[in-house]
Amino acid sequence: MERRPRIALHNRIFIGLLLGAVLGASAQIALPGGRQNEGLRWVNDTLMQPIGQIFVTLIFMVVVPLLFSALVLGVSEIGDAAKVGRVGLRALMMTVLLSGIAVGIGLAGVNLVRPGDGVDPARRQELLGSIDQAEAQKKASAEASAEVDPPVLGIVPRNPLLEATRALTGGIMPFMFFALVFGIALAAIEQEKAMPVRALLEGVFAVTLKIIEYAMAFAPIGVFALVFRTASILGLDAVAAFGKYVALVLVALAVHMFVTYPLVLRFIAKRDPVQFFRQIRSVIVTAFATSSSNATLPVALKVAEEEVGIPRDIGNFVLTVGATANQNGTALFEGITIIFLCQFFGIALSLQDQFTVMMLAIVAGIGTAGVPGGAWPMIGSIIVRFGVPGSAIGLVLGIDRILDMSRTTLNVVGDITIAACVAEMEGRSREVPEEFA
Ligand code: ASP
Q1: Which of 34-38, 379-383, 424-428 has the highest mean pLDDT?
Q2: Is there an atom of ligand 1 within 6 Å of 414 CB?
Q3: What's the predicted TM-score (pTM) here?
Q4: Which one of 139, 291, 296, 378 would you pick to mutate in the ligand 1 pocket, going by the greatest count of ligand atoms within 8 A of its CB?
Q5: Is 411 in the pocket of ligand 1 (CB under 6 A)?
Q6: Contact 409, 287 (CB under 8 A)
Q7: Is the pLDDT of residue 219 over 90?
Q8: 152 - beta bridge partners?
Q9: Which residues 6+ apart lie within 8 Å of 124 measured at CB?
């Protein structure tokens, strides 16, 4: 009997994504009552939500052990502190460069299109009235949990275990700091003592990757469920009201993705952009479906090493730190959103204010947690400086998921792009392992 050819996993995930988008949107449009339809809500609550969450949670489950083992191994393999410093500095340089360009694209676009201008005051009142205040408040204070035993300067933890427990709710930086110091120290102690620790962490790292493989086998269905739910409850009326803004964000993201990244890949990483994008397909789809850089990290680590051929020590270090600290898509989005909300509330910004927004957006991109909606606490705290009510973020929350999916994709592609650039700068970009070449 002839065996049916197996469809490659990344293609199955992609099919799940397309089906979810098409069926979800069609359900919302075709069913009576739209997204409020009883049957649709039942399907979402009892099927799609749990299925999607199981997929995402399976990945989240291993983020802490994976992050720790990957970062410690990466740093200790790079070797001495000076070399770690050099790789880190190069990655940071690339982050600032890419984020700067991203925010520049966003600000140019938002000043050109001015999507928040000329809103009829009555319509503005109506839209403001529709804000879910409780939800907006919750988003704006997502980082409040860091108030117990706060890390010094927000980064040096007293109790790394405490930081590990809040790593997925915005407190990942202090935990990474601990791993970084641990890795540097591991490289500095006697070989004989370091070896068993390293062997243990290598085992932990391999186990976490295995668990990710299990989760990814489930990805086509998980991605379908996540995307179906989003497409079927996306506030289509809000999309219409904020059409210009949504379109602007998506176009600006696309420019960064398809112009900036390919140029950087070609001229700094010395790689063929088309081939690169093909190699990282499964990362792109995972980032898009989960809206989380952290949830995508395990897949990114695997693909960077096995498909793109980035040396493991560099990949582990740059990608792990980058999942939190390099968020070009988010920086671009934050720049546009802050100015859009100022325009919407009729607040005029001077050139100097715009410059401040640019700087804040770059820094906010670095400080944003790599979780769904991670950008909002940052945006909330910045807009109030300019006199926009904090709860105004509720205006955009109804459509945020689709924007979040898109900007997260750029965040993760940016991380791998930077890892490829750093590998090239270190003269190690062609270390493709034999079995993967
Ligand atoms: N969801 C984004 C990420 O994980 C963060 C954000 O922009 O909200 O990269």
Answers
A1: 424-428
A2: no
A3: 0.78
A4: 291
A5: yes
A6: yes
A7: no
A8: 156
A9: 344
